[in-house]
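Researcher: Quick sanity check before group meeting.
Model: Go ahead. Protein one:
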Amino acid sequence: MNLSEINNILEGLGISKENPGSSTGKEFFGAGPKIVSHTPINGQELASVTQTTREEYEAIMAKSDEAFKVWRTMPAPKRGEIVRQYGNKLRENKDLLGRLVSLEMGKSLQEGWGEVQEMIDICDFAVGLSRQLYGLTMHSERPSHRMYEQWHPMGTVGIISAFNFPVAVWCWNAAIAWVCGDVCVWKPSEKVPLCGIACQNIFNEVLEENNLPEGISCLVNGGVEVGEWMTQDKRMPLISATGSIRMGKIVGQAVAARLGKTILELGGNNAIIISEKADIESTLVGAVFGAVGTAGQRCTSTRRLIIHESQYDNVIAALKKAYGQLRIGNPLDMNNHVGPLIDTLAVEQYEKALAAIKEQGGTMIVEGEVLQGDEYSSGCYVKPCIAEVENHYAIVQHETFAPILYVMKYKDLDEAIALQNGVPQGLSSAIMTTDMRESELFLSAAGSDCGIANVNIGTSGAEIGGAFGGEKETGGGRESGSDAWKAYMRRQTNTINYSKEVPLAQGIKFDL
């Protein structure tokens, strides 16, 4: 990866060496300190953005408020047309934007392209949704009355996204919010600010071509302080936040204190139950990708394998062989399976987890280590590892954002489900089985307690058509497909009296 390749990616997406970190253009450029973006591939500096100042934030909120007055009155299908155009722009920029995702975040190029495809897919979904924001009609108990409900835009939606999906999760929220008539203010992770700049640049083209106000989609950049401005801002009726459980608890409390609404997508501790009746070959693909894809930095990454005792030795042997074939290196090289962790802090957490596994009684089946050498000069590359553990270990109950896979045995399915559910998080889960009774039990009310439960596929790789989110300490939020759009709108119940009388409900008499 040479300098000209990097420059081609950045310049192709309108990114300069130094960039305004907010959507107000150059009015405040340089007022705040810089956030410098480095690639975890080799530690090279890519470019910088300026942090959003309080004055700049207030200017953005004013623009957002003015834009909402225009945007909310546009018919929903017309808003959908704007999102359709954005989806087409993403198609044109898929290669470059996917490369930027891989360059700045470190995930494989296939996954970088896949993330942009998720953006395209949610735009397509949102376009169709713009003609399907349905309410209900109810029968009134009063004669000559009609009752119905309708949905209205909420206002400015604040979006706080994490580094591991630097573009897709924002678009899950923004595309749906836009067709619902909301405007958006987005704070990307300070670890991947250039991805936010690129997405904003592309959407700005659509706004300019349609003579629409820039406040429909606003960008802010910065750390905890900027996030606090958003969560405490009464002008944002909804905050959608993706990140750690610790962060989610802070956001949830701050927004609840002002009676605002939240969509929280927090940590996962996802398990695959491998039945004695599992197809081991297909099981292996789902388990290995789930564990090592994105270097274990997905909220849906497979953290635990709960394996039937009769299959345990076979599965472990197959896993050891598969892990021995993993290629770790530059994620832009499509021969490699695993790229780097996001930064050296993540590497430190990985090392602490390895030490905790051994201290708490775990046994390493495939040893982990921090990789050394010229190819790994950023210090962010680690070896995916496998550890035999007990589910109750403190380290197992905790989510470590790294490619660490825990394995354990079970005797019967009730025990396996109890182990699967026996963690604080409740995002994604799966069972590998060819037995219909096992799969149906797993999906029943007595089965998985997660927001996502799969059969014969892994925990990772959700499609945009279904609502995405989890239970317990995962936060309870839902984004993307199904009827998740309702979280971005306010419900209104209407009653129309077309008679000459004014009868009261419940038969109450009130005569003057």
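Researcher: Fine. The other one?
Model: Protein two, sequence then structure:
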Amino acid sequence: MASTMSQRAVLKSALAAGEKGIGYWLTIPGPAVVRALTGIGGFNWVLIDGEHGQINDKDFYELSCAVAAAGASPIVRVPNAEEYMVKRALDCGAHGIMTPMCHSAEDAKKVVAWNKYPPTGTRGFGPMFAGHAFGVSEGEYAQNADSECLVMVQIESQRGVDSVEEIAAVPGLDVLFVGPFDLSKSMNVPFGSKEHQDAIARILMAAHDNGKTAAIFCSNGEQARQRLEQGFDMVSIHTDIGVIVQGMTRELGIATGKTQEKKSGGYS
């Protein structure tokens, strides 16, 4: 019988069952935003962005618990691949950790070690709060964390692409996550060019050849649909701030007559 923690590991369970990982990027440190957006339904993960979002480690606990309460897995992206950052995010209840800029297999091995308790890894022990986002006791969390918390690295550089087959083969690594914008800049090629798309396809193949989940950042639902059709297992569909700005821009345009609104029932 699966542990309670396994049952609460929403994204890991979905991926293991062959389902797609559908999520979005959280950049605003507000549990109310989490509850409003995740409450729509259909999401099994939310990325809590501690790298580029207006979020830092003091927000990780509250946001992780809010995401989990809304029925999805909180995935925390730490600002940099540093052991203390990974530890802090895990101890706040993250269901998975994403580290940016993985350039080599050695980078990936370090990240895996930081995510696992001894003797497998080097994670310090102190999970007083970590189980809250799983709804389990400290003891159950400690017993199951190594197997239930996802380890993700971002491949978003030319060096990372050059080493992607070796990275994908690292034991204990669960997800290779493509950062397409940084990848384009690192390769010094236009976004969406043949060189760019070939690199993304190489990452996808390396992940699947090594039994890993292939994931990618997408800016909208159309991109996400295309990437799923390409074979990716896990996609984001948008960012919270992107949805807010787009929605407000559209409504402002309708109000000022600059955007043509489609006819609808409206108000009487």
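Researcher: One line on it for the slide.
Model: The chain has one domain: 4-243.
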